[in-house]
Design goal:
Elements (H helix, E strand, L loop, with lengths): L5 H4 L5 H7 L13 H12 L2 H14 L3 H25 L6 H8 L2 H38 L18 H16 L1 H28 L13 H12 L19 H30 L2 H5 L4 H9 L3 H35 L18 H17 L2 H29 L12 H16 L4 H25 L1 H4 L24
Helix pairs in contact: 3-9, 3-11, 3-14, 4-7, 4-10, 5-10, 5-11, 5-16, 5-17, 6-7, 6-16, 7-8, 7-14, 7-15, 7-16, 7-18, 8-14, 8-15, 9-11, 9-14, 13-14, 14-15, 16-17, 16-18
Length: about 500
Amino acid sequence: MPRFTREHLFHIRPVGSLVEETHESGHELKRAVGPVSLTALGVGAIVGTGIFVVVGEGLARAGPAVILSFVLAAVVCMFSALSYAELASSIPVAGSAYTYAYATLGEVVAWVIGWDLILEYGVSVAAIAVGWGANLNAFLETTFGVALPEKLTTSLEDGGINLPAVIIVLAITFLLIRGVKETATLNNIMVFVKLAVLGLFIVLAFSAFNADNLRPFAPQGNGGVLAAAAVIFFAYIGFDAVATGSEEAKNPKRDLPVAIIGSLVICTIIYILVSIGAVGTLPAEQLAESEAPLSEALEEGAGLPWAASLTAFGALVAITSVLLVILYGQTRIFFAMARDGLVPEKWADVNPRTGTPVKLTIGFGIFAALVAALVPLGAIVEMVNIGTLFAFVLVNIGVMVLRRTRPDMPRPFKVPIPYIWCSIGIILCIYLSLGLPWATYIRFVVWLAVGLVIYLLYGYSHSRLRHHYANVPDLPDIEADAPETPSPEAR
């Protein structure tokens, strides 16, 4: 049994040793993604289930004031987005918040956030797939007048199994195995299609706008706005997925901050316009009961069945691109953890032909497909949100810690007045988390406890930090674009 000490548990990995690993034979990802594709990855990850499906969950809690809930969730995300942008440009290594925690707060904290991200990304893939199945039914019904049997589109709790969700997850898994360049190209096409469909929805919805549908504006008061924002926050998850592609970006120092912030701004504008248009066409109570609220808004509120069919098709495309990017991000985070030895290192093996971690991708694809088939949407969304908020808190802390411990480290992008900005970001994340039910907290704590046991039994003793970088506290740090020669132990 290894001897656990505070010093070892909180060992910090210098940026130099993290970057060094990205050039290892067998663990090297291909740099093939430019700034436009990176931004499209962000938009592709954000615009999807949140606006096409989860908006109904928000309407049930806040009524027409869901518009304010979208604004509140966006503000919370913007504070954390700048922190992600600084760390992504300074530490261009796969792993996102997991890697940033390793470089700032120590190994045990990095493990906790990595385990948390497995929950966030893996379960969110399942939630998105459930939304995809609902929109597939809406598309078939509005376009062809047919629908899949209820037993094939509902969760185990409702006496069924969500077969469409399983099929789409497995299809996306196959595509991700092909390579990141092919993935990015297809995502660019899907992003263009879904933005065009949402633009059409905004125009048509505003043409049938009825101000009476906005009354009463906030039937549940401020508490309803907060509760809705805590759920709608799910709609903004995705900009952090851009950071998981750090090792596959051609120029990460310049392109990652632009993609992270740019994708969030674009999506916030779209969300606010779409939410205003939706609540202006039909009463909030009616939209809240629909599994595909935007399609219903055009079909029932605007009286445009053909537009409803088009919106349902746009939702399918949108949600497919979100699945693509989020599952991609999931595999890259776990890839970084495996390369660091905290989980079996063989899972980080990269296929030399495709340049992707094939075994890892297949494993997570099967896991997400099973969750999507069996678990209801509401419980999934709440678990994803608390995991994401927790990750955002640690990323904000990481920026402040690194500013103090490494003030001289090159930072292509900097958070303005970091100690104030990041503190506000932390406070807003905590505030938003108060809108989640206690049952979600209990599930989250149980998940983290299970992860901590796995780390103590396996990750601690197998970590590369102890086997390959025995003198890690004394390693000199280096710039990301000039990796040092591996130590004798690393060779």
